[in-house]
Amino acid sequence: MNRRQAAMAASRGAIVAAAGAQFARYGYEATSFARIAEAMGRPKSAIGYHLFPSKHALAVAVIEEQQVRWVETAAAAADEPAGVERLTRVLLDTALETRERPEAGGAVRLLRELLHTDVEVPRGFVWADFIREQLDAARPADAPALPDRAEDLLLEATFGLVTSAATTTPDDLVARLRALWVPLLVSFGIADADVRVASVADATTRGPA
Q1: pLDDT category, 166, cuts 50, 70, 90?
Q2: How many CA atoms lie within 13 A of 149 on its CB side?
Q3: Which domain CATH number covers 66?
Q4: Angle between helices 127-138 and 84-100 (to 10 degrees)
Q5: Domain encompassing residue 105
Q6: What pTM value is reported for the model?
């Protein structure tokens, strides 16, 4: 990579990070190139239509960058048993990351707002597929059929809480997510959801040994 390419990559990365923070704070509709430029302390022209020809293109870049991280998060959770434990680990890690990286919060909020609209979103990591896979692995063979779009219900409830709980402490956020997930999972036919969620959530709040 030559100097010009490196400068372009650095500029692109800075714009994506700034845009992610603005999308996290204001949502898709209320975020503009002008607002992103102002947050960066730069003129609107510095955003560069040659890099991002539209707000949608910029939103896609924010989501795509985060989807790469979500793929890595899911891979890192492979040592957890498939099912509730793996689902809890990935969702908790994602929720806590939104507190540390505003651009992660931007991707979460964008997905929450755009998934059920006509706006096209990238599919580098499909949350609904991941959640359905873990629910199928967690449920006993004789459990009743899952409700329609059970995975969407769990995802929307989780992302809704995460995007509205930015001022809580990490332990409070984990506790609130745990209280959200357990009754939902029990209603999906996973009777021991409280124990299985707790096995991951308690380790998270204690931190590494």
Answers
A1: low
A2: 6
A3: 1.10.357
A4: 150
A5: 56-206
A6: 0.90
